[in-house]
């Protein structure tokens, strides 16, 4: 057991302990009094049901984390990754094929490990509380599709980086950053038109009161949009959503059919005004730039250690291995990701506040508050998350924080 393996195991345990502590704090904080601003959202019976729903999700999440950390520690201590990599090398002479097979097996194992928890959550917890609309056939088909899409994306990224490393040596990170930049842009441009249709049907929002209201509001905000789609989210869940994707001529607004059912026209327009605010503030572009900057930094550091024999040896490898090196390196990034996660969430929450303010300054603050309340109740969201959990894990402000900020703008 070398020093790097000990460090990796320590990081795995650190992440588990941190997530467990945050979960515990959140569970204890659930009984905290509801802020006066949110009084009346639930009656006593509804709030008791919401509390049971949160506890059920917490139990599933805690069990999943526990199983994952035990399995990870066993794999590390037994050198399973190294043995599997040696087997891949013995079966395939070509380095790129060995790389593809290695990550296929790793991702397949992770998928198989997570399926029981996803199945229980969908057909027990979500079903019991009236959210699930997914059939068993849809669930299993989604699992296959998600796995294949994730693997194809992983394969493209890994093959690109590996080939650049073979051609350019340690300076590969510069061109790898360029390659990943193009890849990220392409995914953002075509996600809604290529990937989403593999799971859900999207149809243009038909002419009528809602489309007219959206177009009129967009015109007042000097936002040109023609692509407004409705997605059949009710195929899987009663939970509602809306999102904005793409940029330039590829930008589109996507509404869940459940959102249209649950909110009024004014509330839907307000929710979309929030999304338009993100576009006006270039939040998607800024997020991409940050992601690319982080990728460049990671690749540069990786280029300094990619040829180190200690990385594959830490996972049980007995020979140089690009696959083991990149896997070990990703595990060593755990404390950095833990430290950066609150920073990323602080920036994300700041962007959400600004998008809310954009909607409020266009006279849609009251409708946005009303819509947010309905969405919160309909999804049984936590009204009293622990402040430390919000600081660490929440990419959006809490409902209370958002309403408080919107009300200040309206005054």
TrEMBL record:
<feature type="binding site">
    <location>
        <position position="352"/>
    </location>
    <ligand>
        <name>Zn(2+)</name>
    </ligand>
</feature>
<feature type="domain" description="CAAX prenyl protease 1 N-terminal">
    <location>
        <begin position="31"/>
        <end position="201"/>
    </location>
</feature>
<protein>
    <submittedName>
        <fullName>M48 family metallopeptidase</fullName>
    </submittedName>
</protein>
<dbReference type="InterPro" id="IPR027057">
    <property type="entry name" value="CAXX_Prtase_1"/>
</dbReference>
<keyword id="KW-0472">Membrane</keyword>
<keyword id="KW-1133">Transmembrane helix</keyword>
<dbReference type="InterPro" id="IPR032456">
    <property type="entry name" value="Peptidase_M48_N"/>
</dbReference>
<keyword id="KW-0812">Transmembrane</keyword>
<keyword id="KW-0482">Metalloprotease</keyword>
<feature type="transmembrane region" description="Helical">
    <location>
        <begin position="288"/>
        <end position="307"/>
    </location>
</feature>
<keyword id="KW-0256">Endoplasmic reticulum</keyword>
<dbReference type="InterPro" id="IPR001915">
    <property type="entry name" value="Peptidase_M48"/>
</dbReference>
<feature type="active site">
    <location>
        <position position="275"/>
    </location>
</feature>
<comment type="similarity">
    <text>Belongs to the peptidase M48 family.</text>
</comment>
<feature type="transmembrane region" description="Helical">
    <location>
        <begin position="319"/>
        <end position="340"/>
    </location>
</feature>
<feature type="transmembrane region" description="Helical">
    <location>
        <begin position="173"/>
        <end position="191"/>
    </location>
</feature>
<dbReference type="GO" id="GO:0071586">
    <property type="term" value="P:CAAX-box protein processing"/>
</dbReference>
<feature type="active site" description="Proton donor">
    <location>
        <position position="356"/>
    </location>
</feature>
<dbReference type="GO" id="GO:0046872">
    <property type="term" value="F:metal ion binding"/>
</dbReference>
<feature type="transmembrane region" description="Helical">
    <location>
        <begin position="148"/>
        <end position="167"/>
    </location>
</feature>
<keyword id="KW-0862">Zinc</keyword>
<feature type="binding site">
    <location>
        <position position="278"/>
    </location>
    <ligand>
        <name>Zn(2+)</name>
    </ligand>
</feature>
<feature type="domain" description="Peptidase M48">
    <location>
        <begin position="205"/>
        <end position="408"/>
    </location>
</feature>
<keyword id="KW-0479">Metal-binding</keyword>
<dbReference type="Pfam" id="PF16491">
    <property type="entry name" value="Peptidase_M48_N"/>
</dbReference>
<feature type="transmembrane region" description="Helical">
    <location>
        <begin position="96"/>
        <end position="120"/>
    </location>
</feature>
<keyword id="KW-0645">Protease</keyword>
<feature type="binding site">
    <location>
        <position position="274"/>
    </location>
    <ligand>
        <name>Zn(2+)</name>
    </ligand>
</feature>
<feature type="transmembrane region" description="Helical">
    <location>
        <begin position="66"/>
        <end position="84"/>
    </location>
</feature>
<dbReference type="GO" id="GO:0004222">
    <property type="term" value="F:metalloendopeptidase activity"/>
</dbReference>
<dbReference type="Pfam" id="PF01435">
    <property type="entry name" value="Peptidase_M48"/>
</dbReference>
<feature type="transmembrane region" description="Helical">
    <location>
        <begin position="6"/>
        <end position="25"/>
    </location>
</feature>
<keyword id="KW-0378">Hydrolase</keyword>
